[in-house]
Amino acid sequence: MIKKLLYTALCLLALHGCKIENDIPYPIEEASISAFEVEGQCNAPEGAPQAGINTDTRTVTLYVDDTVDLTELRIMRFSVSPEDAVIVADEDACVDIERFPTTGFEIPDNLADTRIDCSAPVQFTLQTYQDYVWTVNVTQVIDRQIDVEGMVNSVIDTENRRAIIYVSEEQSLSNIQIHTLNLEGPSGSITPDPALVHNFTSPQRFMVSRGWEPDTYREWTVYVYHASETTSEANVFPMTTRATLTGNIVSGKRPEIEYKQASASSWSTLPSSNISVNGSRYTATFTGLTGSTAYQYRVTVDGVAGAEDSFTTAPATPLENGGFENWSSEPVKNGTLWQPWSTTSFWDTGNKGATTIGDSNSIPTNESCNGSGRAASLETKWVVMKLAAGNIFTGTYVRTDGTNGVLSFGREFKAFPTKLRINYKYTSSTINRIGDEDLNYLMGRADSCYIYIALTDWDAPYEIRTRKTERQLFDKNDSHVIAYAEYISGSSDTQYQQRDLVLDYRYTNRTPNYILIVATASKYGDYFTGGDSSKLLIDNFELIYE
């Protein structure tokens, strides 16, 4: 009897001491924005990054016209995937957080208030079993335009609300004909009617409203002066195989432009299709030029040729060690440290990090695209405790931080290639290693190679850090990225393929300081995620200037 009592007591104590935990993991279900539209939405202005949804950076980029108030912008469509994901809006940005929908919508119902202050980037959190933070960036495009008979140039000072118009010497200041005076955008209104105001021997004042504030008027002052010689100067921005000429011209006129190499004796006439005129401003594009070459040009208006001027194109700089022929090596504790240079480094790899616990996984190979010389073999491997994605990049491997890398991205570069031509052969494996729980949804999918090129105007090389708590990776939407192209593939190849990555120049009036080219066998290698037998062979990378 005593034994039974002791046994019962021990069982009760054991049960009392047990802690029941819910250790069943939640499934990974990534939430994303699939559609996002706002009132007054318009196209991106020339030279600005394109509007769109970027699932890699979880960002939405939009542009709106001058009809809407950016501080109370109404969202017209907000679609999410999966459809049952919960939307948590930024309370400080919402006009009425209590009435903002918590689920996706095509058209807001009468009870919803979808107005958001988008004068600064706005964050939305999408909730499934995890939280996913998305950022929406909205830029307002106010198309301010001036067109006056005989105008040579104009300056709009929005801060002080004044416009300065320069007209030709023959134009009487007491008989100015204004065709367009959009000082706050085409949707605003202005009084008095500019078409009825002609005497500008002294400044004239106008009351102007914005499209989103039709009842609020602000005073603008308009000055008209005769153009001096400096106001009609043209500016040229030379690239490698093209150049852009911008200048002022009397409104209603059209220039004829001639050009030639400085050493040539005869002139060529620029096709009229290469010249656009907007009011008193013209833009001309020279194409088919030769790098590192001096050119002369002259502008003729009404049969009168202007003074000759000149420019020199940027060099057609070749890509250093683009064939991946030059390598050096040295023995290290865990194998061989392979480096993609013989004397001077231009490329580097993550081998210094990989060889702290294993062997190099970015190495030379004789399996080249043309059967001779060397190529680079980038292989993703599981190294003791972490996935190491085979990679190569223009820049320097700085140091190893634990099992993480710190890299310096970019090499100095001042040219304007049109393409990066690549030769590659990829063997994709199934993703079986996840280094970041946010990427659990990739498990079991085909791994992808990733090759990209960017021209940037960073002030210094860009530091990359892979440690999760201080992660800093390259952002292709960075405002310093002047031109960009990429290639992603999850398919395996039986032989080498050739492909041209055509650079998209987001800005045509900025000179790059750095070139960044990256190739990796696993797209999410920065997150230590991929298939541990994926392999990318690359050979004969070449910059094309057309």
What would your notes on this structure say?
There is one protein chain. By secondary structure, this protein is mainly beta. It has four domains: 32-140, Immunoglobulin-like (Sandwich); 145-226, Immunoglobulin-like; 233-312, Immunoglobulins (Immunoglobulin-like); 328-544, Sandwich (Jelly Rolls). The strands form ten sheets. Strands 27, 32, 33, 34, 36, 37, 38, 40 and 41 form a nine-stranded antiparallel beta sheet that branches. A five-stranded mixed beta sheet has the order 2-3-8-7-5, with no helix packed on it. The model is unreliable at 1-22 (pLDDT under 50).
What layout of secondary structure does this protein have?
Elements: H1 2-17, E1 32-38, E2 52-54, E3 59-64, E4 73-81, E5 86-89, E6 115-116, E7 122-127, E8 131-140, E9 145-148, E10 151-157, E11 162-167, E12 178-182, E13 189-191, E14 204-210, E15 213-226, E16 235-238, E17 243-248, E18 256-261, E19 268-269, E20 275-278, E21 281-286, E22 294-301, E23 304-305, E24 309-312, E25 328-332, E26 335-339, E27 347-348, H2 351-354, E28 362-365, E29 375-379, E30 381-383, E31 386-388, E32 391-401, E33 404-409, E34 411-412, E35 419-427, E36 449-456, E37 462-465, E38 481-489, E39 497-502, E40 504-505, E41 514-520, E42 535-544
Parallel strand pairs: 3-8, 11-15
Antiparallel strand pairs: 1-4, 2-3, 4-6, 5-7, 7-8, 9-12, 10-11, 13-14, 14-15, 16-17, 17-21, 18-19, 18-22, 20-21, 22-23, 22-24, 25-26, 27-32, 28-29, 29-42, 30-31, 32-33, 32-41, 33-37, 34-41, 35-39, 35-42, 36-38, 36-41, 38-40
